[in-house]
Design brief:
It is a single chain. It is built from three helices and six strands, in the order H-E-E-E-H-E-E-H-E. The chain is of the alpha/beta class. The protein has one domain: Janus/Ocnus (Pyruvoyl-Dependent Histidine Decarboxylase, Chain B, 3-Layer(bba) Sandwich). The longest helix is centred in the middle third of the chain and has 14 residues, at about 45-60.
Amino acid sequence: MSEETLAGVPSVHISPEGIFKYILINVTDSGDASKAVVRGFSDCEWHADIFDREEKVFKKLGLRAECPGGGRIEHNPEKKYLKVYGYSQGFGKADHAQSKRILATKYPDYTIEISDDGY
């Protein structure tokens, strides 16, 4: 059941537009199965706010979550453009290349750029 639950977790859940903080989350079931997901919400002031919100969701599903890092996302749906950059003061910098690969699964027709510049 846990692997099926893990498979049902969306890989990407981000705000529909704007510039906002995001985190990469490694979600693990009770066995060895894991999945990396991207979460970013414009209504969250801190990266930890995103993690706290999502961790509650995963716990209800019987899953564990850890955050290896974060940054920011610029999302412009009109231009079909995403930019992944920056870092989290609390969690450190996410692997933006991994985040880009995950975002591309939901936004295959977008231009997605990554940068280590900016906060």
